[in-house]
Design goal:
The chain contains 11 helices and 2 strands; from the N terminus they run ααααααααββααα. α7 crosses α10 and α9 packs across α10. β1 and β2 form a beta hairpin. The longest helix has 26 residues. By secondary structure, the protein is mainly α. It is found in: Cell membrane.
């Protein structure tokens, strides 16, 4: 009986210890983290009611023929869409175009960054979803742009072109140029998959791989052209067409010269 009691006490003590350790070290859910700062969420709700509620509804459920639901898009989608000026949209189009953001959401100003954080916290607290990375700016550039280039060519180049200059898609949509996008905007775009872009979870591309892709994009955006004319930065397709045109023009000219000589 003593052994049984001792065993039961040992099991109970072990379970209590595991419970305490889990409560102390387990990460809190993203929604719970956002709910901790009620003042920030209240400010975000006011901003949402002033700028977003008409199209996205009082409960983030969306409004038919005006705007989609924001449930599950997270703080990351809010940052990407609003900081890049894509939201609010002036009118319904095939794709939201990049433009200068509203002054109150300009990420280049302290007020704009604070308002973006508050609006994102409100959407995060009520809808959940991916959150913006803790790092900002150049801190989001990885250490291996070479690996980032390989990952970019596998996952991004088919739409954004080899050097990030963008390209046309179907149904009036397009892959935008990546040069104007900040590191945070590129990262949050990979997290949320705006427009025709696929969403890359951390299982598909780890945070470090995302950062390496950003490092590659920023390196080619500011690369020199030691070979001369950049051919608009369109990559090997443009180079191949240019070489073909030059060679064919030379062959045609040579054939004309031979005909004239004979």
């Amino acid at each position: 009986m003593k052994r049984r009691i001792a065993g039961a006490l040992a099991i109970g003590l072990g379970l209590l210890s595991v419970g305490f350790l889990y409560a102390a070290f387990a990460p809190q859910p993203q929604v719970a983290q956002a709910q901790q700062d009620t003042a920030l969420i209240a400010k975000g709700e006011q901003l949402y009611n002033n700028t977003c509620i008409t199209c996205h509804g009082a409960n983030l459920q969306g409004v038919q023929d005006r705007g989609p639901s924001l449930i599950g898009v997270g703080d990351a989608a809010v940052y990407f869409q609003v900081s890049s000026g894509r939201m609010p949209m002036a009118r319904q189009e095939a794709q939201a175009a990049r433009k200068h953001p509203l002054p109150i959401f300009d990420p280049e100003t302290q007020e704009g960054r604070a308002n973006l954080e508050a609006l994102g916290a409100f959407v995060q607290a009520n809808g959940g979803g991916p959150v913006t990375p803790a790092a900002t700016g150049e801190a989001l550039r990885g250490d291996d742009p070479g690996r980032g280039g390989v990952l970019y060519r596998l996952n991004c180049a088919s739409c954004h072109n080899f050097t990030g200059v963008g390209g046309a898609l179907s149904s009036g949509k397009y892959a935008p140029a990546l040069e104007p996008a900040s590191e945070e905007q590129i990262y949050t775009a990979m997290q949320t998959g705006p427009q025709n872009m696929p969403r890359f979870s951390d299982q598909q591309l780890t945070p470090q791989e995302k950062q390496d892709i950003i490092a590659y994009i920023k390196s080619v955006n500011h690369a020199n052209d030691p070979g001369g004319y950049s051919l608009l930065g369109l990559g090997p397709t443009a180079e191949g067409v240019f070489i073909f045109a030059v060679v064919m023009s030379g062959l045609v000219g040579f054939a004309i010269w031979l005909g004239a000589k004979s």
